[in-house]
Specification:
Layout (H helix, E strand, L loop, with lengths): L2 E2 L3 H11 L8 H23 L12 E6 L4 E6 L6 H9 L3 H8 L1 H6 L2 H5 L11 E9 L6 E6 L5 E6 L5 E8 L14 H12 L6 E10 L7 E9 L16 H10 L9 E7 L5 E7 L16 E5 L2 E7 L11 E6 L8 H6 L1 H24 L1 H20 L5 H5 L4 E4 L5 E3 H7 L7 E5 L3 H5 L5 H5 L4 E4 L4 H8 L1 E2 L2 E5 L17 H6 L1 H10 L28 H11 L1
Parallel strand pairs: 2-8, 12-14, 17-18, 17-20
Antiparallel strand pairs: 1-6, 2-3, 3-7, 4-5, 4-7, 5-6, 8-9, 10-11, 11-14, 12-13, 15-16, 15-18, 19-20
The structure holds adenosine-5'-diphosphate (ADP) and magnesium ion (MG).
């Protein structure tokens, strides 16, 4: 029998799993059960789209059996099974979600917690097993195959016997060591708890043979043991439950279970819509930027279910780009299962759902801003940029959706403020919303151009993000107040006649200014006496459409 080697990156993940000192090794069961459930989903989907197949719900289940004596734990399913090739491809090569975790290898080493929250997949079995055996028969195939591996040394595949379609995963559980207890993964009680904890919402029954005891017949003191098969999980998916039945922990667990992220979401949104289009949705606003968020690999989208069956992993039509950080799922009875991606783009129901969801997210964010300011600011630090891009790429209504969610650093408050807050503090005579652009708050503090506006007692918004100025150029005004750069030549501020009136200086210095202008001929348009300076001798100002800072950004962009 030939022993095959794992692909290089699989091997590294495998090593990581085998040598993991991660304390929540129990998640291996969650991973194997979720694979079993996926395999049954595939079967169900096939039956729905293929008339020659039928799906009898009772025939589909997952079973967990422990054999303490031989230290074996078996997880079997009646799912779609794997062919010989699929066994090689799926188990010999790292799977997608596994590779995600893999990219974060450094984090895995430093923070073992992340393993538990990420989709580490099939290989997690090696955290508790010295040998993993997979026996599988694929739908439509007459042969069954046995895949077996002890970890790093590779794996073998050979034909074997199996009556029914499906997969059996058999784990030979490791012996206890001084630091690690593996025995518990053979205990009914522990297994039951692990299933409840992580796999309660799996839509197919997860069965176990539980040992029970009852009074012996004709006796009132002697007990006898008997075995009864029981379904451990609740099965009703979380999104079909009533909000009142669910705790924040339930939602968080769902977030981890679904591998939406490894942070703790800032907010969950549970929607049960009964209107024009019926759907359930659970959405999450993450706290941290996903590590691939600003890369090309990042795909926005929500999981799309049609009446409980997953039809698409990342349905991008459901989210506008400016909310691309939102994670979650939508389940609707009104969508056809046979819908294709092209059809989805034009689907009226889907468009309605998307619109509805966008509104909901906006309102929840406003609510967060109003009632949990600190959390909102955390969120804004992570995703504010995305909102600003949203305004910048305005397609009709983006501006309206997003303008109240924007925040900028304020010269007065020394923290992030909303435009609404800015307006509400404006003295009556103030005409514009003033802003200053620069590399950092500290730099802007020192800008001579801010002096006059600040002296007037007006608040200045600091634009340190390169997108900021573009954003407000598109926004143009907020509550009828236009934006004005502190470096524009007309600040709209009434000048008082005082010692700063340098009209006489203007004449006296004419020669000097001409001289300066000559020297700086290709660098400045004009040299003038300024009324705006208090403590600084000189500053730049411009009459153009954009500020000097923005010109800098544009010039770096065009390089
Ligand atoms: P993921 O589930 O994220 O794809 P896994 O490492 O958990 O990654 O699983 C790898 C692949 O192995 C799955 O995508 C699937 O194709 C296959 N697989 C694993 N377990 C089963 C099973 N019980 N039945 C059918 N296929 C399975
Ligand atoms: Mg999996």
């Amino acid at each position: 029998m030939e022993t095959k080697q794992f692909k290089a990156e699989s091997k590294r993940l495998l090593d990581l799993m085998i040598n993991s000192i991660y304390t929540h090794k129990e998640i291996f069961l969650r991973e194997l059960i979720s694979n079993a459930s996926d395999a049954i989903d595939k079967m169900y989907y096939k039956a729905l789209t293929d008339d020659s197949l039928s799906f009898d719900k009772d025939k589909y289940y997952i079973k967990v059996v422990s054999d303490k004596e031989n230290r074996l734990l078996k997880i079997s399913d009646t799912g779609i099974g794997m062919t010989k090739e699929e066994l090689e491809d799926s188990l010999g090569t790292i799977a997608k979600s596994g590779s995600l975790a893999f990219k974060k290898e450094t984090e895995l080493k430093d923070g073992y917690d992340i393993i538990g929250q990420f989709g580490v997949g099939f290989y997690s079995a090696f955290m508790v097993a010295e040998t993993v055996t997979v026996i599988s028969k694929a739908l439509g195939s007459n042969e069954a195959y046995k895949w077996e591996s002890q970890g790093a040394d590779g794996y073998t595949i050979e034909p074997c016997e199996k009556d029914s379609v499906g997969t059996e995963i058999i784990l030979k559980i490791k012996e206890n060591t001084e630091d690690e207890k593996y025995d518990e993964y053979l205990e009914e009680y522990t297994l039951r708890n692990i299933i409840k904890k992580y796999s309660d919402f799996i839509r197919y029954p997860i069965k176990m043979d539980l040992t029970k005891s009852k009074l012996k017949e004709d006796s009132d003191s002697e007990y006898e043991e008997y075995i009864e098969e029981e379904t451990i999980n609740n099965m009703v998916p979380i999104w079909k439950k009533n909000k009142s039945e669910l705790t924040s922990e339930d939602y968080e667990r769902f977030y981890f279970e679904k591998h939406y992220g490894f942070d703790k979401p800032v907010k969950h949104i549970h929607i049960k819509a009964e209107g024009l289009v019926r759907y359930n949705a659970i959405l999450f606003i993450p706290e941290k930027i996903p590590f691939d968020y600003y890369t090309r690999e990042y795909e926005k989208g929500l999981e799309l279910y049609s009446n409980g069956v997953l039809i698409m992993d990342k349905c991008s039509e459901l989210l506008p780009d400016y909310f691309s950080f939102v994670k979650g799922m939508v389940d609707s009875e009104d969508l056809s299962l046979n819908i294709s991606r092209e059809m989805l783009q034009h689907d009226r129901q889907l468009k309605l759902i998307a619109k509805n969801i966008t509104n909901k997210i906006k309102n929840e964010l406003l609510d967060l801003l109003k009632n949990e300011r600190e959390k909102y600011e955390e969120f804004y630090k992570s995703f504010g940029r995305q909102l600003k891009y949203g305004v910048y790429n305005d397609f009709g209504s983006n501006k309206d959706t997003l303008k109240d969610l924007l925040m900028f650093y304020s010269s007065k408050e020394k923290k992030l403020v909303t435009l609404d807050e800015y307006i509400s503090r404006m003295p009556e005579e103030q005409k514009y919303i003033y802003y200053a652009s620069g590399e950092s708050n500290e730099r802007i503090d020192k800008l001579p151009q801010t002096e006059l506006v600040a002296e007037k007692g007006y608040e200045i918004l600091y634009f340190t993000d390169d997108i900021d100025e573009f954003t407000i150029k598109v926004l143009m005004s907020y509550k009828d107040k236009e934006f004005k750069s502190v470096s524009s030549s007309d600040l709209g501020i009434e000048m008082e006649e005082n010692e700063n009136d340098n009209s006489s200086n203007e004449k006296d210095s004419k020669e000097l200014f001409e001289y300066m202008k000559n020297i700086l001929s290709d660098k400045v348009k004009d040299v003038r006496a300024s009324k705006r300076l208090k403590h600084h001798p000189v500053c730049f100002s411009n009459d153009g459409e954009i500020s000097i800072e923005m010109e800098k950004v544009l010039s770096t962009m065009s390089n």
